[in-house]
Write a structure and sequence with these properties.
The protein is of the alpha+beta class and about 575 residues long. It is built from 21 helices and 12 strands. It folds into 3 domains: about 80 residues, 2-Layer Sandwich (Phosphorylase Kinase, domain 1); about 220 residues, Transferase(Phosphotransferase), domain 1 (Orthogonal Bundle); about 230 residues, no CATH class. GO terms for molecular function: ATP binding; protein serine/threonine kinase activity.
Length: about 575
Amino acid sequence: MSQETKVIMNYQYNTCDIIGRGFSSIVYKGINTSTKENVAIKVIKRQFSDQLPLIQNEIKILSKLQGRNILKFYEHFMSQNNIYIITEYCRQGDLAQKLKQLGYLKQESAVAIIRQIIDGIQVMAQQNIIHRDLKPQNILINEDGIKIADFGFAKPLNQLQNEMNVGTPLYMSPETIIKSQYNAKSDIWSLGVLFYEILFGRPPWQAQTEQELIFKMLNQRISFPDVPTVSESVKDFIKQCLIVDPYLRLGITELIKHPLIKKTTKKTEKFTRPTETESTDQTIKSEIPNNSEPWTYNNSNKKLVHVNCKNPQINAILNKYLNTKNNQVSNNKTNSKTQIQFDEIQLILQSQFSLCIFLNNIISKLRDFRLATPLLNEKCRIIFSKHLQSIKDKIYKQLIESDNKFKFKDWQLFCKENAYSRFSAKFILENNQFTKTCQEYNQMIKSNKSLIIEYQKYDSEFYQILFGLEWKVIKKIVRNLIIELNHLIAQNIDTSNLSNKISKQQQIEISLLQQSYYYFEIVDKYYLKEFDEKRFGQESKIQQQMIVKELRISDYLEIRQLIKRLMKL
């Protein structure tokens, strides 16, 4: 192979000293001719112009981050043909190479690595940055420790909008791979997968397709091989990282307080090939007393057995959802009477879940809508949020906490069905957004204490709603909302020509009017008397309200006719 020495400013490298390759780049071992220090020189050909935003993003992020477990950035240069990124040189390669060489690492070494990665994630969190591509290939190893590298996909959280999936599916969180949603806990899921792979030489789920991977993430509980043996605190840490609902998944601040991480590392561990007879179970075991460990392992039946958990919601998720049996199990033969009961359960749960989505949608539209009547917007958002909170809590208790709020017959049998697992997965993924919406409502109440006192004095009817859903009062307030919305829309839309186009903003306004009217009908028909979930599921057709379609002038005229009758009431 021909050799050629290249010089760029005060750095030089030999074209034979390749230490890494990417789609549009080659990484060389180089030297700073001024300091004689070894460096890594990433050379990107400028002909790959579509990669330029990622390159610029990586340079910007790396220049902001400074931490002992973040790859050290020195400087960058641009020539006519290439872009050069100069970083520290990590002599021992990356973690993927080590795992390929050794198979897996002993628990003591694995924990030392995870502690350092967490330190790097904490540095990113302080700058409000998420990595979005944590995997063994992007964890470099140097004499002084672990370095997180490759920040091409990293982004500040406040700049995440309508993101496309990036990274490697195997390490993506469920909300990312299914819904392209990123949050501060996306990297935590990747950390859990990474930790598992370091310990056992393979990821927690293996799949041939993305669809199969999604199904296994949502339906198969986390299981741990008998060999190599790991401590219960390690298992708990991984499970806390791999909670499907990001709202319940531990954040970086909570992970740092986990007993596994709180213990200080005495020295940087060397990489040695573990033997199958080695047991490191006692290495971390002493960090956490037995009575505070949330799980224990029952060797007789190879199932996780619940002992105790400080967080009841996490405990419920792990027991009732993550431990749900996979698709190999629930093909129980059911008689026709039982199947009718199952169909009824699904009908009721689905209609209530759809109502949650409907309420969340109407709240998001109303949030930015200006109304003339003082506090009408706030009142309606409080009403919809309280209703959403009530329904979502009832579904959550039914699915997760084994509290049969809906009084279903054959509920325990239904919990063994695939339908239970699928519905639980759908609800848990959406529940994070529902919870955020309800938190906004709670914050609105807390930050307006003086307003609450005013309600008590001058609006005693609405004041009742703060303590319970009074449906007669709600019907009156929503009626006022519909009338005002209709008045505002009528002022800005020309109905003389049915072929007139409706603007995007008018589409939103008319859609909000339709949904408000539909909600008024729901209250009038189902909630003023004792609410019947089965009747609601059979008659309401709420799922049709979820269908997004382009609205026309004729749609608006139709809803106006309904509102005219409403105004006569």
